[in-house]
Amino acid sequence: MDGDRESQRWNWDCPNTRRQLEELFFSEQGYIKANSEDSKEFWVFFDRFQRFQKMQKRGDKCKGRTDKEKYSGSLKDLPKVYDPRYRINFSIIQSKDVEKSRHNHVKEYRSRDCRSIPREKLEEFKMSVLHYLDFTQKQSFAKLVKLRKERSSLPIFQYKEKIISMVHKHQVVVVAGDTGCGKSTQVPQYMLAAGFGHIACTQPRRIACISLAKRVGFESLNQYGSKVGYQIRFESSRSPATKIVFITEGLLLRQIQRDSTLPQYQVIIVDEVHERHLHSDFLLGVLRQLLVLRPDLKVILMSATINIKLFSGYFEQAPVLQVPGRLFPIQVIYQPIPQEETVSKSEKLDPRPYLHVLQAIDHKYPPDERGDLLIFLSGVTEISSVQEAVQVYATHTQRWIVLPLHSTLSIADQDKVFDLAPVGVRKCIISTNIAETSVTIDGVRFVLDSGKVKEMSFDPKAKMQRLQEFWISRASAEQRKGRAGRTGPGVCYRLYAESDYDAFSPYPVPEIQRVALDSLVLQMKSMELGNPRHFPFIEQPSMSSIETAIFYLRDQGALDINEELTPIGKLLAKLPVDVVIGKMLILGSLFSLVEPVLTIASALSVQSPILRNSTSNPEWGTARKPLESEHGDPFTLLNIFNEWVQVKANQRSNSRKWCRRRGLEEQRLYEMANLRRQFKELLKDHGLLEENVAQRGDRNSRQRQHKERKELHQLKRQHERVEKRKRKVLKLQDEGAGSSSDGEEQYHTEKHRKDRKDSIDIQDVKFKLRHNIHELHASSSTGQDLSSQEVSLLKLIVCHGLYPQLGVPDSFNSCRKDSDQVFHTKNKQGVVLHPTCVFSCNPELLQVNSEEESAGNESGNKGQSSRHQIVAFVSLLETNKPYLVNCVRLSALQGFLLLARCIDTSADCCRIVCDKWMEMNVDNPESALCLITEAVQLRVALEKLLKSRLEKPSRREDHTEDDAWTARQEAERLGRRLVDYVRPEAIYSMRRLAALEAQNLYVGPQVLSSASGLPGVFTGVELKPDPLKGGYSVTNFLTYNCLASETDFYSDCLRSFWTCPHCGLYMPFTPMERMSHQNSCMVEETSEGLGEQDNKMTSVTSLHRNYHCDICQKDLMLTPTEILKHKRQHLNS
Amino acid sequence: MGAAILPGAQGTLGNAYHWPREGTHARNYVTNVTERKHGQSAKCVRNIPVRMDLDEPQPKGLFECELCRLSVPYTYYGQRPPNSQSVVLLEECFVTKDPFTPEKEKFLILGSPCSLCKKSVCVGTECSLFYSKRFCLPCVTQHREGFPPEIQQDLDKRKAQKKS
């Protein structure tokens, strides 16, 4: 009776009781752990279970037991009386405490706690735990069965055996199936089931690698194991136990580059071959050659049902297996935009046809029928103009949530398209072609296809990328349509006529025919694939495109005359970046400016972190202002990165917030950090970077670091457990706060403040695990206080990499509006600066200042200055206008003299033409000559240094400390000279040559009797008359006196008195003689072996002899030809 | 063994006498005793090359339900699943690590041999039921009368559900 009363008073909800029970049952070793997710779930279950039991009891009482008789007991060993407990096939073992309290050993340890819980309550609780465990077992098992059912209901499942037998019989098999047939997830698993152990499946996109690995891991019940992994740049989940790896095409190619037979794989699956990416086309070519060397290797090509014959034919009629897709019927409605509406040929897209479709959907389909709308437009500007109009309609009707989707959006914004709309509201996703293949959104029922796409094309002549709008192909149109039928029957509205559709080209243009092939050709060379012109691509790129690439690589010094890789080329081929950026890295390592160069190189290799979209916030610009560099965008990026690392290193500050305030996409900065590290390792591997002796620090700090890392690891694991991003329900936007990101942020902070507090910034954790933040911090702070000398050297390095991508400001820029500054490159005139460029807000940085100009006016020549600027740019991108992207400024004359491939001068060197394009007229012949001689010396020294650095064996042990030290000294000296050199002093004017002028630039070949007898200006370099231009070619980039001009035909023979600053020799020289002397004088000086007297003697070559001129009464050291010239001079005068 | 599971007359739910209790053993798992030989009734499809990966238990073979043909690799057969010290199974089961949670001590029971016909069947309600012992559904229908009415009702309910 007592117990009864007690149990009536008993309250399961009492927190104290619960705590006690948890202590008793949920031990550290127990199946349910205290304070775990599991225990929380248990209590939820517990409450439900209690209610359920109460209900059952009541039911039992009413019903009574009537059917007892039927129970025959024919089965042996079954319990006499039924109890649901017998239906559970396991039991719980308890800790001592529980056992004791259950057996009423009241006075034992902890007895006071347990006494308050009566025995039958403990029993009851134990039963609940048991039922909970049984419930979780059932849950997991049901999940497993469902998974298996789903797999076997995929269209491809029926072909499993067929595929396996085909792969066993043939080396290459083509599997063609449309979206939703399950080929990407299933075929790798089938191969594993068929007994293949090492399977690689390539994907064109990194995201796909991660998500497929996740999905396949889940399906093969290895979600938390490493049987299925992925490998993308900087990230890998691969372990020795990995059997299936999803890998990007580029990375697989790199692996082939390392070991051409690819021994680590038995099966290679190339997915999405129909998308015809540059890398996948190349990969197919490489694999085709590999098949001969690896007869045991199996290759499976997977494509949509597009152009299958092409792939099959490429691999000697490989067998094809076609799998039907799983698409629901889709109704196609052609709604061409009427002519009169398109007539308004303003730049902006007319949103009305799009609005009509939204209205039609609202009209036709009741709001409780779910289904979202996906609009395909060609570009970001189109998206924002449609978004604007649709948003007004959406706010009015309260039936739509408008979401843009394109690759320049922040990742958080991109993720919003996966969230759910509230009941009665549809999502209207306005997207670029990113949603055609890369992003798959479920729940789309309506597709609205503009039929347009903006595609990057490459103009090999101007070396310019062009983003142009095209009609899509029929294949893309079908792909877009298919997006409406993934989850149910759908509708596809096409804003073009059926006849238009029929006129579309069948397939999109393969990437290989649209892009620059520099990196591809370089990679082909380093993989020793022979002549790139004859490589059997699945479809040949244009020959001119290959030629351009080869020419460019030769021009950049990556290939030699015989098109073999040079040492630089070999290194560049290993760097997974553009040749331009590779060159910067190499040079940076020469001048011990590695840290900032690494940052700049990585910054220029990823998408810009600076966000710029329709809702871009003016406050961002203000917040970024202090980070802007007047030297140019790469330096701004350098500042951003350095500052960000500082923020990261500071324990208390939140880098995510810091980025948000400044309109920066933090993901890109993480990418930069990763890339930077990869570059650094590559440089170390090639002996271009000294392994800095690890500053291990004292024991304490090491311990602290160890502890920090441990904590980070823990956080990461914790995150992985609860990772699943839950789909949120979107909120209808209010009128005011609709598009403003401020309102958005507020909404987030208010609503999710609690979540946010709990949630860890996993990117931050990963970052800190991957990088040594202290080291990075140290190197970034050295980057922050670069001296002005270092900055200008850095600028030269960047520009050296970027050459020949140079632009000059138009001479009338000072009269133009800030935003209308015009620039010209050699091949493209009238380009403008990209709006994010620092110079587009501060154009005065590129203009010759007015004071100086007036000084120029005094000398009677307009446009004379010492401060002309040019810009080097990373890319030239044409969208609605041609834009220069990522610019650095540089002193014009010095820049050209140091970088130009082809410098031609007049006899007095005052007139200089660079790359047959820019003409510069220097005021003072003295300084002109000075500039040219110094430039020649610097360039030769630089080349020598670079060569010695690259050609030395990569084993650094071979070199003594001394060698390294002298090399460093040499580099430092050269660096100083370079910096001194670019200091503006000479006054000059600058203009572009007109086409006609450029054609008639040279005097042409001259018959010079004296040709053979000329002294070498440089030791070891023969000075030859140039057979085409006329004049003399001094080095491979400098031709002297070849410019046609009416005025000074004989000026090359004119001598003027000059004192050599090195040896003090004072005598008249022709410009040529002077250069020659200066150079040899320098050589002697550095060798330091000879006295001054000898120096003077050896400064002239052996052909020189003593000559006494009777007319000017002088003793001269001259060659025979010079003697003749000298005589002629007197005749003339 | 089956007799031992019989509970006390009052229907209180206690452990069978032979069940391991906390503290009476030194945490060594009963592996060899109840270990089933490969291919005895579960089909062992092929030998998966053993690579020592400390975190991942290697599959011992493939469990296949002889009724629904569900096949899943199992990592343990017996009554004391590894890493799960506080749970004991009341029948010898094919067990795998629960694939839906990262915690390595969580296991998932896949199936077990029917106590009557010895066929390996999965724990799915369409293939078998457990009532102090495992019975495959064909055996249950055969011996329908031998089960308590609660079980029979359940079976009827399920049948009706299936039809509708």
From TrEMBL, chain A:
The keyword Iron does not apply. InterPro entries: DEAD-box_helicase_OB_fold, DEAD/DEAH_box_helicase_dom, DHX34_Znf-C2H2, HA2_WH, Helicase-assoc_dom, Helicase_ATP-bd, Helicase_C-like, P-loop_NTPase. Residues 360-528 form the Helicase C-terminal domain. Residues 164-324 form the Helicase ATP-binding domain. One of its GO terms (molecular function) is ATP binding. Keywords: ATP-binding, Helicase, Hydrolase, Nucleotide-binding. The keyword Hydrolase applies. Residues 693-759 are annotated as: Disordered. It comes from the Eukaryota. Gene3D superfamilies: 1.20.120.1080, P-loop containing nucleotide triphosphate hydrolases. Residues 715-730 have a biased composition (Basic residues). Signal peptide: none annotated. One of its GO terms (biological process) is nuclear-transcribed mRNA catabolic process, nonsense-mediated decay. PANTHER family: ATP-DEPENDENT RNA HELICASE, ATP-DEPENDENT RNA HELICASE DHX34-RELATED. This is DEAH-box helicase 34. It comes from Xenopus tropicalis (Western clawed frog). The gene is dhx34.
TrEMBL record, chain B:
It holds the Pfam family C6_DPF. InterPro entries: CDPF1, CDPF1_dom. Residues 63-155 form the Cysteine-rich DPF motif domain. Belongs to the CDPF1 family. This is Cysteine-rich DPF motif domain-containing protein 1. It comes from Xenopus tropicalis. The gene is cdpf1.
